[in-house]
Amino acid sequence: xxxxxxxxxDLDAILYNYQFAKKLQPSCKAFAVVxxxxxxxxxxxxxxxxxxxxxxFAVAAIEEAIELREAGIESPIMLxxxxxxxxxxxxxxxxxxxxxxxxxxxxxxxxxxxxxIGKIFVKLDSGMHRLGVDKATAKELVMQLxxxxxxxxxxxxxxxxxxxxxSDLTTMEQLAYFESARxxxxxxxxxxxxxxxxxxxxxxxxxxxxxxxxxxxxSPFAGIAGAQLGLKPAMTLxxxxxxxxxxxxxxxxxxxxxxxxxKAHQLATVAVGYxxxxxxxxxxxxxxxxxxxxxQLAGRVSMDMITIRFVGDSDMAMALGQEVVLxxxxxxxEEVADYAGTIGYEVVTRMTSRPKYRYLTSQ
Length: 363
Prior knowledge:
Mean pLDDT: 96
Number of helices: 11
Structural class: alpha/beta
CATH superfamily of the largest domain: Alanine racemase
Helix content: 25-40%
CATH topology of the largest domain: TIM Barrel
Order of helices and strands: EHEHHEHEHEHEHEHEHEEEEEEEEEHHE
């Protein structure tokens, strides 16, 4: 029997979440962000399912975009970080890619290449200080792009640093800086909203929103699960029990013996570990579901295995072959992330190639 670890991906849930994002900002068009292998969900099958429905896709780099084109994806695709080498501009023209532009070197490469590009998004640094230019430079870049005759439309974009923290006023400050830059430039469409901003902030009408993590039903906000926000979680990671034993009071478990039984109980070993993407630093007590009943992690995560027990007293016996849900359904990935000291984004994007991926759709 093959190793029983399966990542089940609900493609209809991803489409629902995309449509939900558009309903929240009905005046905007929306990128479906499928960078980093669609946040671990599988960029090609996700994009194939959404291709006839989305306004455009967004990826981090041209390699990700070419993979989608080679898989038959026809929708526009935007490079969120722009090009890394000037030679990529001609590939953008060949494949119909759009691109962000955040420095004068990228502009010089475009002008030298004479590539024709559908849309260029000039990136404004509104306060995150990671990518982008200041207001004056942004205006100059927009003017040069418009004069070049190489670009059908030039837009202005930025990225928020604290949109997931509703008590932080930085987002309002960034929006004010962005709108000031738009006024200086004149008539130009905007793209500012990531998942958190789409859901909880007032953003410019028209232009483009960029739903990323919310596309996969995962919350961008600490302490809130995606389902609580009206999203449909798309991934269920499940495996099976491969060994069962009885522990006595005082027995210690796993590497470093980080778990010690305070009374006699059953312990099960499950075929999943950090070699599959289950976070190694996940603490004892992290939730799982064992054949529909609440369980928890008991012992350090190994490369290929974890050990689990039922929560509290249970008269249900564990057995070989029982299904264990690691996240999905009644086990929010956000809660697992909390036990691992990280965020849902990282948990799903660190998935490796070892789990079997199963794609579900009613279509």
